[in-house]
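Project outcomes to date are best conveyed with an example. Our students and postdoctoral researchers have been running inverse folding experiments weekly, and each run begins with a structure described purely in tokens. The record below, which covers 107 residues, was selected by the lab manager from last quarter's runs and is presented without edits.
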């Protein structure tokens, strides 16, 4: 039971972080090696992602996707998400992670 609560708290922490990136350009690499670049429109608790103004990173490999401009990506098929370094507030992220860890140790 305690592990579940800690897991849910860390998932919400993760979701809150991704919500700060809404409106920013990200690259999502899928487990099938397809990489998509676009503006993060939304993300949910399952890390399902909606991208706007999407482009295929390697259009020569996936010419059938060139016309697609918006997409929904199921969180379970995501391998990596590349974030713009200048958009990530590492100090805020470290402070938040530290507070979350302190909260778990008090239980």
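After processing, the design step wrote out the following sequence:
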């Amino acid at each position: 039971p305690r592990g579940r609560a800690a897991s849910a708290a860390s998932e919400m922490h993760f979701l809150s972080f991704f919500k700060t990136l809404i409106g920013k350009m990200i690259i999502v690499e899928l487990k099938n090696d397809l990489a998509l670049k676009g503006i993060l429109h939304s993300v949910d608790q399952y890390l399902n992602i909606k991208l706007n103004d999407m482009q295929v990173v390697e259009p020569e490999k996936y010419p059938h996707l060139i016309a697609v401009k918006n997409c929904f990506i199921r969180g379970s098929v995501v391998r990596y998400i590349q974030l713009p370094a200048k958009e990530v507030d590492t100090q805020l992220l470290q402070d938040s992670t530290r507070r979350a860890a302190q909260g778990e140790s008090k239980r």
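DSSP finds two helices and five strands in the chain. The mean pLDDT is 85. The training component of this project remains on track.
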